[in-house]
From TrEMBL:
Heme b binds at H406. One of its GO terms (cellular component) is cytoplasm. It comes from Parathielavia appendiculata. The keyword NADP does not apply. GO terms for biological process: 'de novo' NAD+ biosynthetic process from L-tryptophan; L-tryptophan catabolic process to kynurenine. Belongs to the indoleamine 2,3-dioxygenase family. SUPFAM superfamilies: Indolic compounds 2,3-dioxygenase-like (SSF140959). The keyword Ligase does not apply. Keywords: Heme, Iron, Metal-binding. This is Indoleamine 2,3-dioxygenase. InterPro entries: Indolamine_dOase (IPR000898), Trp/Indoleamine_2_3_dOase-like (IPR037217). GO terms for molecular function: heme binding; indoleamine 2,3-dioxygenase activity; metal ion binding. It comes from the Eukaryota.
Length: 483
């Protein structure tokens, strides 16, 4: 059965009430976490023409270093003329690009965001339940158009970003790889929900052997799906140059958290005018904010530790804003924290899935195997139980190997470029990372080693240790030994 047929079948099951959760309640569509309809290319009300006019020429304004002057001259517009949810999302995209363009579009970072952006951005982000930054949702989920006649959003070659900071095809391709992956993975969402439901409807000792092949087939399909995601990720360097990404694109993706070296020691002051405003330190857009990847973790039962993976600053609370805090659980892992940067319905979906099936497939499969005789001795397993266990191990292994691909991308697109001389006189994430590397090398240590100073990701984490830890935790969930 093809992915499209699987998704169609699952949708029919949902309408019939067979799926344990109603995906429509969580703004999950036939495109997964992407919207059903293409994002708006322009806000319909002419009141918002000043925003639209400026974002249309954003790359030119940044290149000519006139953006800040133009933003400072914008009128302070209200959100009163935003009606449909599509319009709120469009406003979030536009204001997110203007915000990061303003902050990072000069020789040095701008520490103060003016009221013309701050006030409407705070209102829009409050409505959507997302922090006032250019998050994954504004850069990817709601920032695309497709030329595919069949509206196949997994057709990477037919996708185009609506907006970029640089105007380069490299930047559009970088975003669209993620969009294609989100679409490609959409069909696995109802498939895995059905599988979890199948294994949890009865006590493990009473689950019939005829039910196990359903879960096994779902896990096997998940392995296939993850391989397809990896194939899309492998296409990154078809149209995105590591040099262009590192020096021109990546600086604009940075947030204001852990960006001292890049010129934001206190974060950014969101000036609301009339003497009001506050300093905020927020994470920038990153693929860690993808609800799809976190869904794969949740349904497999991959657990990410709170300690060690959010360095250099594991505290997610910033000036009273608890983005991503989980009630009663302190501290939280980076993976849990960045759910606060996802659209609210998607965040709620992940939380509900985790609450309904704690431990995911790892726990469910383990209980099925233990039910044989109180232990997991293989000689007691039936053929169906062996197949289920192997399918689970292969699914977790494929996700860990996908994270290995991500590490390889980071090596090509960030680590290697950071070792090369950067002649720019400006201060941003790229120049700060390159200077960090040069300083560490001069001191006789490797900036990529555990003992040296670490590269910081756009989300504010110590990049390589975080990614390696996430990969190792995924391997361990499948029972694989990792040093």
């Amino acid at each position: 059965m093809s992915p499209c047929e699987i998704l169609t079948s699952a949708r029919e099951e949902e309408k019939a009430g067979a799926l344990p959760l109603l995906l429509d309640d969580y703004a999950i569509t036939s495109n997964g976490f992407l919207p059903e309809e293409p994002p708006l290319k322009r806000l319909p009300h002419p009141y918002y023409s000043p925003w639209e006019t400026l974002v249309e020429c954003l790359p030119t304004a940044i290149a000519e270093q006139t953006l800040r002057q133009q933003v400072d001259g914008l009128p302070i517009l209200s959100t009163d003329h935003l009606a449909r949810e599509q319009e709120w999302r469009r406003a979030y995209v536009v204001l997110g690009f203007l915000t990061h363009g303003y902050i990072w579009g000069g020789d040095t970072a701008a520490e103060i965001l003016p009221p013309s952006i701050t006030r409407p951005l705070l209102a829009v982000s409050h409505h959507l339940g997302i922090p006032p930054v250019a998050a994954y949702a504004s850069l990817n989920l709601w920032n695309f158009t497709s030329a595919s006649p069949a509206n196949d959003l997994s057709d990477l070659d037919a996708l185009q970003a609506l907006h970029t900071f640089t105007g380069t095809p490299d930047e559009s391709w970088f975003y669209m790889v993620s969009v294609a992956m989100e679409s490609q993975g959409a069909y696995i969402i109802p498939v895995m929900l059905t599988a979890l439901h199948t294994l949890s409807t009865s006590p493990p000792s009473r689950i019939s052997s005829s039910s196990l092949p359903t879960a096994t087939k779902a896990l096997t399909e998940m392995t296939t799906c993850i391989h397809k995601l990896g194939n899309l990720l492998d296409r990154m360097d078809e149209h995105c140059s590591p040099q262009v990404f590192y020096h021109r694109i990546r600086p604009f993706l940075a947030g204001s958290k852990n960006m001292v070296a890049a010129g934001l020691p206190r974060g950014v002051f969101y000036d609301e005018g009339d003497g009001r405003g506050e300093w905020r330190q927020l994470r920038g857009g990153s693929n860690g904010q993808s609800s799809l990847i976190q869904f794969l973790d949740v349904v497999l039962g991959v657990e990410h530790a709170a300690e060690g993976n959010a360095s250099p600053d594991s505290d997610s609370k910033t000036n009273g804003h608890d983005y991503g805090r989980v009630a009663g659980k302190f501290p939280v892992s980076f993976h849990q924290e960045v759910r606060g940067y996802m659209p609210e319905p998607h965040r709620r979906f992940l939380e509900d899935v985790a609450a309904r099936w704690p431990g995911g497939m790892r726990k469910a499969v383990g209980e099925v195997l233990m039910a044989v005789g109180g232990d997991e001795k293989e000689e007691r397993f039936s053929n169906e139980q062996r197949a289920l266990r192997e399918a689970f191990r292969m699914a977790t292994k494929s996700l860990a190997e996908f994270r290995n691909k991500h590490l390889q991308i980071v090596a090509r697109y960030i680590v290697i470029p950071s070792r090369q001389l950067n002649w720019s006189q400006g201060v941003n994430l790229a120049t700060a990372s390159s200077r960090l590397r040069a300083t560490s090398s001069a001191m006789g240590r490797d900036a990529m080693s555990d003992g040296g100073a670490e590269l910081t990701g756009t989300g504010g984490t110590a990049l390589l240790p975080f990614l390696k830890q996430s990969r190792n935790e995924t391997f361990r969930a499948g029972g694989f030994h990792v040093q």
